[in-house]
Here is the input.
Amino acid sequence: NSYGWRTPEVTTLPRPGEFRMACLGDSVTFGYGMTVYQDDPYPAQLEFLLNRRYAHRHFEVINCGVPGYTSYQGKQVLQQILPLKPHLVLLAFGHNSRFRQHYSDKELGRIYQSSFVALKMFFNRFETYRALAFLLTGDHSHAGGKPLKERVPVDQYRSNMEEMMRTLEANKIPYVLMNSTFSPESRAVIL
Here is the structure.
């Protein structure tokens, strides 16, 4: 869509009577590795299941997942979704935080505060770019040179998540913190 998310186009405000949810996260939310069909990632499945079970209501679930993103970038995505007036936000970050690279995401954020920011944001709208960026920013522990750091250290992860929770609370938007550990048994529970 025009936001670069793997979801149908989104109207600025929810339609009358619609319950809008936004799922922020990484490749698990995005549905990385799944087919190109929009109905495969969990946000699309959640929307389908809610609309099937509660036919008298209409649910819209926006997939705001981006492969390779951590809670650091999640804070920026959260600012993008606030004008869309979601009634509930699901936050699913943590998987990419433990990967190691030469700069933390916070340090890279400072580096990107240059003239390259606009260019990076433009390219980030394309799935191919995001997938390539994900592959390139993974675990490079075999690389020599500068010591490697966690992309988001635990204390910074906690701070990022708390900042997103405070932002949502200030906007009176309920939220759910999600864990990305799945098993065949967890799938049976939601069906």
Observations:
- The two ends are 28 Å apart (CA to CA).
- Helices lie at 27-30, 42-53, 71-81, 105-111, 116-123, 127-136, 154-170, 184-190.
